[in-house]
Design a protein that fits this description.
- The protein is an alpha+beta fold and about 300 residues long.
- The protein folds into two domains: about 130 residues, Roll (Diaminopimelate Epimerase, Chain A, domain 1), CATH 3.10.310.10; about 100 residues, Diaminopimelate Epimerase, Chain A, domain 1.
- The chain is about 25% helix and about 35% strand.
- It contains six helices and 17 strands.
- It has a 17-stranded mixed sheet that branches.
Length: about 300
């Protein structure tokens, strides 16, 4: 069906929602009496599956996350976010990596989910609960979404590391910085982030014994005043176009090393993110994009 190229975007979007909404409802009723619906969203190319489990028991398991994360046999994502009910905030969030492991934080997924929830509530600000703690998010006038990711974890046992070391200068080749942002991070500062072989170096650092829970790995270079270029290898996901918690960790590390101030623009493979390390926490700001809705078939679920 062709909705045309001219005219009002809102009208075309409404027509599309009517068509596809009716199609998906028909699929649910005809072939999938107990479906699991999901959304696909991304923030600066960091892509996510989002499952809304408010009003019911959690449906995500390690097996489901791993199967959905397969980009050939499932849907594919960098992280999966499950929305749950919460008595402390407007909602709670759990995160899963594409290999089926759990993630403690995911800044870009949080921004995407907050945009979805804010639109549903008709508000521009929400509170949420994650393993990272109680967070706050808001929508800016330009449509970008900003989330307070909380204070950075700088002590070795908070990151966590396997033993007490200087977190600003880890005893690893390349002299990285260890920062925790709900997830552990190893941040390397290099002359040219573009030249780094992420696929080779990323998994080596991820599984270094110094990080008992594995680690995300960031390579960043200074390209201007308070302006960084960063590329990332995420534990449990591999090379991704962006990483919210990794962007926050990189800016914290850059400031502690004396390379930047506390408010920094970061160019990632998938776009541009901004980080502002304030007294109340590290704020991450960037774009969000809604891609599509879907419903998992009974056959897919039965094969888990």
């Amino acid at each position: 069906m062709n909705f045309g190229r001219g005219g009002q975007g809102a009208k075309r979007e409404a027509l599309a929602k009517t068509f596809y909404g009716g199609y998906m409802r028909g699929m649910e009723n005809a072939a999938n009496p107990s479906p699991i619906g999901f959304m696909k969203m991304h923030g600066a190319g960091n892509d996510f599956i989002i499952i809304d489990s408010r009003g019911r028991d959690s449906v995500v398991t390690q097996a489901l996350a791993r199967a959905l994360g397969d980009r050939n046999r499932g849907v594919g994502f960098d992280q999966l976010a499950e929305i749950r009910d919460s008595q402390r905030g407007d909602f709670a969030l759990d995160f899963w990596n594409s290999d089926g492991s759990r993630a403690g934080a995911c800044g870009n997924a949080t921004r995407c989910v907050c945009d979805f929830v804010m639109k549903g509530l008709g508000r521009d600000q929400v509170s949420l609960v994650t393993a990272r703690g109680d967070l706050q998010a808001l929508r800016l006038a330009d449509g970008r979404v900003s989330v307070n990711m909380g204070p950075p974890q700088r002590d070795w046992h908070e990151v966590p590391l396997a033993r007490e070391v200087d977190t600003l200068h880890l005893p690893l080749a390349g002299d990285p910085v260890a920062i925790g942002m709900g997830n552990p991070h190893a941040v390397f500062f290099v002359p040219d982030a573009e030249a780094v072989d992420l696929a080779h170096l990323g998994p080596m650092v991820e599984h270094d014994p110094l990080y008992p829970e594995r680690t995300n790995v960031e390579f960043a270079s200074l390209i201007g005043p308070d302006h960084l270029r960063m590329r990332v290898w995420e534990r449990g996901a591999g090379v991704t176009l962006a990483c919210g918690s990794g962007t926050c960790a990189t800016v914290v590390a850059a400031h502690l090393r004396g390379l930047t101030g506390r408010r920094v623009t970061v160019d990632v493979d998938g776009g541009v993110l901004e980080v502002d390390w304030r007294e109340d926490g590290v704020w991450l700001t960037g774009p969000v994009a809604y891609v599509f809705d879907g419903v998992l078939t009974s056959a897919f679920l039965a094969a888990l």
